[in-house]
Every structure is written in C-alpha cells, then in structure tokens.
Amino acid sequence: MSVSTRSEFVDFIVPLRERLDLYDPTKPSSDQPKNDAADVAKAIPQGFMDAMSVREQVFVGEQGVPIEIEFDEDDQRSFHWVAFASVPAKHSSQAIVTADGHGQNKQHISNSTKIPIGTIRLVPPPHPPHPTPGSRHTIDALGGDLRKDSIAVHDGQEGYVKLGRLAVIPEFRKAGISRLLIDMALAFARNNPYQVMPGWDPAKLESLRLQSDRAATIDWKGLVLVHAQVGVQKVWRKYGFETDKSMGSWDEEGIEHVGMWRKLDISAGRRRSKVWLAGMGSPLGSP
C-alpha cells in the first residue's frame, strides 16, 4: 500500500536547485532579505522555509549546531517533507471562505492555525565517501578525512539515497510524527525509484557518476543510508535500519554518529516508473 507524499498536514517539496541560491545560510529562515525581495515565481517556497524553521529550533537551538552549516549544498537537490499541526490561534480568528453546493460563498471562522512541527529530507545519489571511523566529520562535507575502502553493507559501487535531517519539535515528539515522515519518505522512494535519480541527460549522468564515491555508479537499487546520532539508533531500528559496525563512529559537530542501512524492495516501483526511462528530463519540477 503506497503512502501519499502530500496531505492537508504534510507538505512535499521537490528539489529546488538554483532557487535556493537566494538562501543566506548565516541567517535564520525568518530573516532572508534576498528571498523577500525576489519575484514571487522565483522565491523560495514557504514549505522549505517551514522545514528550516524546524531544523533551526532542533539542531541549532537545542543541539548547538552552528546556523551557518545547518543549511548545506545537499538541500538544493533534496526532497523535503514538512509536517504541520493545527493549534489554537493566539490572537485572532481566521476567516475561511468556501463555496456551498450552489456556488455561493460562505464564511467560516477558524480559531486554529497550522504550524510546522517536523521535517525530513531525502538526498539522491551521488554522495561523498563514507567518514573515517574516529574522525571529525563536517556535516555532508565533500572533502576531508574520508575512507577509501568499501564497508560491510556498501561495496563502494552501488548507489544509495540518504535519509536525514529528521527533526520534530519537543511538544510533538510522542505523537508519531517521526514515523509519519519516515514512512512517507521511504514510500516515495520505493514507489518512484527513477524520480529520485538526479536527471536523465546522458552527459550529466556520466558527469555525476565520475563525481560520486570514487567514480561509483549512481544507479539506485533500494539501498538507504542514515547518519544516526548514537543516542537515537533505537529509533531508526524501529523503521528497519541496522547499524553497520564496519563504519565505526565519527564526530559531527560534537555529536557521535554511526551509519545505519536499510534495503527497500523497489521492484514494483521500477515497473510502474519505466515510462521515465525514456524521458528527457526529471518528471518532477520545482513548484
């Protein structure tokens, strides 16, 4: 059974690519002058700003990650999901206009508003080599102290997607939001394996292959990686991820991390998505 990637209380953002050139990583999502001054059609969608507001509260505010590195180059090519909650409006009611069966407008008064409470992202291949055990690894760095050998689960050749930036604000951490977001992201990848690839132009694909993990292929067969904080491994195990002990552990911004893997069965998604194999571009465009 597939899981929808968008609902009334979950927003789905496709890769925004150059639209995120307007984002200033040194400032919070609520203070983005370049974006505020941009043409509406070229501005960054509010859904991405909502995702960043959750990440800022959790990773920057709670865990002390410097704000200037919370936003990274992978954000431009990632799929994002944002969960919302309906909460009572603090100051005033909202008027919502709807049409009845006769085409007449009716005004309803809403005493609630939606706020972003959780987010997750899925990063397509290619990826940099895996961190060296015991190293101090800059989040999603393309260089640095990185291992060259294969590991137990990943042979250094098979492409994989990376799930990460899972964050839920404190008031909603026992409400099943993490499960909702993880299930939606995995269901999307499972059902749309060709859509998580970075593009279909042959020259571009070959260039990406050469840039990937020691010239590894970027073809994806269902392998999913998370860089999990040591203290939340049990959370990821609930969703079928297993710790790869051969990867050891490493430091990311003062927090010890390990690698955890899961293999999805994407055979049904491959059959449904064959139409995209002959496509000339990505089936998803920026909103």
Automatic annotation (TrEMBL):
Q: Where is the N-acetyltransferase domain?
A: 65-265
Q: Provide the protein name.
A: N-acetyltransferase domain-containing protein
Say which domain of life the source belongs to: Eukaryota
Which parts of the chain span the membrane according to its record? none
Q: What is the lineage of its organism?
A: Eukaryota, Fungi, Dikarya, Ascomycota, Pezizomycotina
Q: What Gene3D superfamilies does this protein's entry cite?
A: 3.40.630.30
Q: Which InterPro entries does its entry note?
A: Acyl_CoA_acyltransferase, GNAT_dom
Q: Which organism is it from?
A: Friedmanniomyces endolithicus
- Any GO MF annotation of the entry: acyltransferase activity, transferring groups other than amino-acyl groups
